[in-house]
Amino acid sequence: MYTLYYSPGACSLSVHIVLEWVAADYQAIKVNPADPDYLKVNPAGAVPALGLGTSSVLTQCSAILKYLALKYPVAQLDQHDSLERDADLARWAAFLTGDLHPAFFPIFKPERYTIDSSDDALAKVKAAGIALVAKKLAVIDQHLQGRDYFTGAERSYVDAYAVPMVRWAKNVLPGGLSAFPNVARHHEELLRDPGVIKAMTSEGIQGR
Fold first, then answer.
1. Is the pLDDT reported for residue 79 higher than 80?
2. R_g of the chain, CA atoms, integer Å
3. CB 137 within 8 A of CB 180
4. Rounded to two decimals, what is the model's pTM?
């Protein structure tokens, strides 16, 4: 049995979704990433972490998603039908990890990005983060034009990876997803998926 360590609505939600998609046997444990007991599981103090049922624990969201996709090939979340498709999956996983996810940091933790703790300075940092998130979403929106999922007609682990980040964007951008119709369409379709619904309900965030 796997053990998923998660925080509600965090990027760990994507792993929660994929565990449902692959029909894995798992338990989900809600944690505070800063808790000393959790730091023994993942000294980096971040979620997700995935206990493998042995002494081994996987960390880093994209690595866990890739592991599960390869471990359960019948779910077809990482199809190796071509080198180009495999590279495309890796490209978008890297984009979500290295471009979109960090764009939210100035919004959620503006104090990390300025030595000026005034309300005005923090507001400007947040505004810069919001602009950056919008810029990254525009790239995804253009890519999803004419596509059901990131790599075409079939879902992959990258689609699950996008769910929590698009939820954040929907909540923090002034117009929500109104400027990104393809992102909104893709996200709303995923929100109707039974595995997504089950994972979100388990985390107490269904419908938000």
1. no
2. 17
3. yes
4. 0.95
